Amino acid sequence: MTLRVGVIGLGLMGRHHTRVLHDLEHVTLAAVADPDPLARARATRGRDLHAYEDYRQMLDQEHLDLTIVAVPTSLHREVATTAMRAGAHVLIEKPIAATGAEALEIIAVAQECGRRIAVGHIERFNPAVVALKQRLARGELGKVFRLHARRMGPFPARIRDVGVVIDLATHDIDISRYLMASEPTRIYAETARRIHTDHEDMLSALLRFGNDALVQLDVNWLTPTKIREVNVTGERGMFTVNYLTQELTLFENNLPEDGAVDNAVISVVEGKMVRFRVEPKEPLRAELEDVISAIIEGRAPLVGPRDAYQALMIAEAIVSAGRTGDVVTMLPHEVLAFA
Ligand SMILES: NC(=O)c1ccc[n+]([C@@H]2O[C@H](COP(=O)([O-])OP(=O)(O)OC[C@H]3O[C@@H](n4cnc5c(N)ncnc54)[C@H](O)[C@@H]3O)[C@@H](O)[C@H]2O)c1
User: Fold this and answer.
1) 3-115 CATH, one of 3.65.10.10, 3.20.20.70, 3.40.50.300, 3.40.50.720
2) Matching CATH topology for 3-115 and 124-281+314-332?
3) Chain centroid to CA 69: how far?
4) Which of 8, 10, 12, 165 to probe ligand 1 with, by most ligand atoms within 8 A of CB?
5) Ligand 1 atom at minimal distance to the Cα of residue 78
6) How far apart are CA 124 and CA 121, in angstroms?
7) For residue 294, what are the contacts with CB-CB under 8 A and spacing of at least 6?
8) CATH for 124-281+314-332?
9) Where are the domains of the chain?
10) In whole angstroms, what is the distance from residue 103 CA to residue 267 CA?
11) Residue 232 alpha carbon to ligand 1 centre in Å
């Protein structure tokens, strides 16, 4: 089976989708759409595909099985719902929408039209994260104490519609929930706006999760070098993932004979450092392979609307905590409100 796929929005992310889709199996990249003629010319150069100025015309004419929604976040609702009403499944770039209310509208249309939604929380497909998740699920760290995510870099002038929490921290919120298989119960946050004209561009947040772990998020668009890291500390040591180099490292807690009493760790001693072999893979390719096989096999993609909505709700709570200075308490029923 071969899926007919279209890409809407040919900016930074849409260009990557177009490149990867062009040589994936079980896919015909049939058409692309963007009002910008330069973006269309770049995407079609050397490729046999139709380019449209108006994405609605593309949806009317191309009978697509899957549409990639890579327009600015504030347009996700309009474009994704139109694509699903035209009969296509959708892969929506992260975050699923600019607000929780818009995300719920997208999800309602998917249910009404019987279409699948995948959301581009691409870090789930980083091979170092995949390897870390497997090791945590096997209990290699024992009880998890804390997770510290650092995602920093220069200001991206093209992101105008949302702030750094909705745009970037949603990656780290999603990865925190995924790695710990738990949800936040209490949120403290400080945000600031230094360069962005309308939204926050710096976040320091502290969250307590239901598994009793503390999660610290340092995310900003103000750092002149790109840092993308997550550390997870537990009874048996600390794992570190560098998303950019796809490296997974363990700093072991060298437990002495008397370091554990009745299975409870009572000391921390510096031990071995182990760098695990991780087979490199482009996360976007792994993400698209998952979405394509999910549609062909009629199963849910790895990252669907529930996870994406949850990440967005938590991001909205962080924005609110940063704005008001209040501590936000999330009750289990709020966190799990959407099945
Ligand atoms: N997964 C990731 O790591 C990742 C990275 C970057 C961006 N993103 C997400 O991808 C989305 C796009 O971000 P970007 O960085 O590519 O932005 P961008 O500004 O580089 O590109 C957006 C493109 O959409 C086009 N566009 C605007 N209105 C349109 C319309 N009505 N129809 C068709 N095209 C239209 C613009 O002309 C532009 O070419 C955002 O939601 C962003 O959050 C995800």
Assistant:
1) 3.40.50.720
2) no
3) 14
4) 12
5) 31
6) 6
7) 116, 118, 300, 301, 302
8) 3.30.360.10
9) 3-115, 124-281+314-332
10) 45
11) 31
Cis-peptide, bond into residue 95, ω within 30° of zero? yes
Q: Indicate which atom in ligand 1 lies nearest the CA of residue 158.
A: 19
d(CA 39, CA 32): 10
Under a CB-based contact definition with an 8 Å cutoff, are residues 99 and 72 in contact? no
Q: What are phi and psi of 207, to 5 degrees?
A: -125, 140
The label of the residue with tokens 């550390």 reads 231
Which amino acid is it at 246?
A: Q
- Name the closest-CA residue to atom 15, ligand 1: 12
Query: What is d(CA 230, CA 287) in angstroms, rounded to the nearest whole number?
Result: 20
pTM value is: 0.95
Q: How far is the CA of 93 from the centre of ligand 1 (A)?
A: 8
What are the backbone angles phi and psi of residue 18, rounded to the nearest 5°? -60, -45
The residue to which tokens 């070098």 are assigned: 225
pLDDT values of the chain reduced to their tens digit, one per residue, 339 residues = 999 999 999 999 999 999 999 989 999 999 999 999 999 999 999 998 999 999 999 999 999 999 999 999 999 999 999 999 999 999 999 999 999 999 999 999 999 999 999 999 999 999 999 999 999 999 999 999 999 999 999 998 877 889 999 999 999 999 999 999 999 999 999 999 999 889 999 999 999 999 999 999 999 999 999 999 999 999 999 999 999 999 999 999 987 666 566 666 677 888 899 999 999 999 999 999 999 999 999 999 999 999 999 999 999 999 999 999 999 998 766 654 554
- What amino acid is encoded at 303 in this protein? V
